[in-house]
What does this fold into?
Amino acid sequence: MAKITPGEFMRQVQAEARKVHWPSRQETVTTAIFVGLMTVLLAVFFLGIDALFGWVVSALLSAL
It folds into this structure.
């Protein structure tokens, strides 16, 4: 592989950065709200599953 100079490397980085599609502010806000909502929903779901399993284990252990 051929060695490239630091200047050429920076030009290549800038050329690639120009190709990136940056999201708009609205897209960023919408995505952040969706991620926050999904995080809360999954947290509640796993809290419920954990409570259910805890109850089952307690019931099994108290039956012994």
Observations:
- The chain has two helices and no strands.
- The chain has one domain: 6-63.
- The mean pLDDT is 95.
- Residues 16 and 53 are 50 Å apart (CA to CA).
